[in-house]
Design a protein that fits this description.
By secondary structure, this protein is of the alpha/beta class. It is built from seven helices and eight strands; from the N terminus they run E-H-E-H-E-H-E-H-E-E-H-E-H-E-H.
Length: 221
C-alpha cells in the first residue's frame, strides 16, 4: 500500500492552464480525500517566453515552497506536463514519490513529435516566433523559437524514472503516438501503462482513470 499523498502537483499541458477540465476533475475528487492539488501556471509571466527550463525552475520553486508536511509529493502530468513530470522525477527522486501521466509527450522535441513538422521548424527559426493556438485563451498566442531550442537540452524518453508510475494513453491520440509511449513504458518496470479507447484529451476516460488512480494512491481499497 502506498503512503497516502498529502499534496498533488498537477502539471498542465502545452497551451493549457490551471483552469482545464482535467485539473478541475482531479481537484474535486482528490479534495474528497483531503488531498490538496497545486497547479502551477506555466503561462506566467507570459506564454511567448515559455521554455522547458523555465517550467522546471517554476516547479522546483513550487516544490520548495510546499511545507514539509506536504510530502510525499505526487506529480500528475498531462501531455507536455507529463514530459515535465518525467524530467522532474529523474532530477529530484527524493522529493517525488510517484507519477500519474496522461498522454505524456515522451518524444517531445524529437523527430516525429507533433508540435510542428520539420519545414515549420525552419520557418519558426527564421521568424523568431510563431503563433500557436492557446486553448485556455481560445486564441492564437506567439511563442518564441527559444522554446524549441531549449527543448533540445532535454531527453524525456531517456529519463531514468524509478518511482511507481501510472500512464494513461489514448489509442486514437493524434498528438502523442501510443506506440512510442508503449516503447517508453516497456523498459521501465515501475510503470503501469493503460491504453484507452480515447483521444489525446482523455476526457471520456476520466471516470475510469480516477478509479485506477484512487487505488494507485491508496485512497481506496
Amino acid at each position: 500500500m502506498p503512503v497516502l499523498p498529502v499534496t498533488v502537483f498537477y502539471l498542465h499541458g502545452f497551451a493549457s492552464s490551471p483552469r482545464s477540465t482535467k485539473v478541475a476533475f482531479f481537484t474535486e475528487r482528490l479534495a474528497g480525500h483531503h488531498v490538496e492539488v497545486r497547479c502551477p501556471d506555466f503561462n506566467l509571466p507570459d506564454f511567448q517566453t515559455l521554455t522547458m527550463t523555465r517550467m522546471l525552475d517554476q516547479l522546483n520553486e513550487a516544490l520548495a515552497s510546499a511545507p514539509a508536511s506536504a510530502t510525499p509529493v505526487t506529480l500528475f502530468g498531462s501531455s507536455l506536463g507529463g514530459t515535465l513530470a518525467m524530467l522532474a522525477a529523474a532530477r529530484w527522486p527524493a522529493r517525488i514519490d510517484r507519477l500519474v501521466l496522461l498522454a505524456p509527450a515522451v518524444m517531445f522535441a524529437k523527430p516525429g513529435h507533433h508540435l510542428l513538422p520539420p519545414e515549420r521548424i525552419e520557418e519558426w527559426r527564421r521568424k523568431g516566433a510563431l503563433p500557436f493556438f492557446h486553448y485556455a485563451d481560445n486564441a492564437e498566442r506567439p511563442l518564441n523559437f527559444t522554446f524549441y531550442e531549449d527543448s533540445l537540452r532535454y531527453d524525456a524518453f531517456g529519463a531514468a524514472i524509478t518511482q511507481p508510475t501510472m500512464i494513461f494513453q489514448g489509442l486514437h491520440d493524434t498528438s502523442v503516438d501510443h506506440r512510442t509511449v508503449e516503447a517508453f513504458a516497456r523498459t521501465r518496470p515501475t510503470i503501469t501503462l493503460s491504453l484507452l479507447d480515447d483521444d489525446h484529451q482523455l476526457i471520456k476516460s476520466l471516470p475510469r482513470i480516477w478509479n485506477d488512480v484512487a487505488l494507485f494512491l491508496g485512497l481506496v481499497e
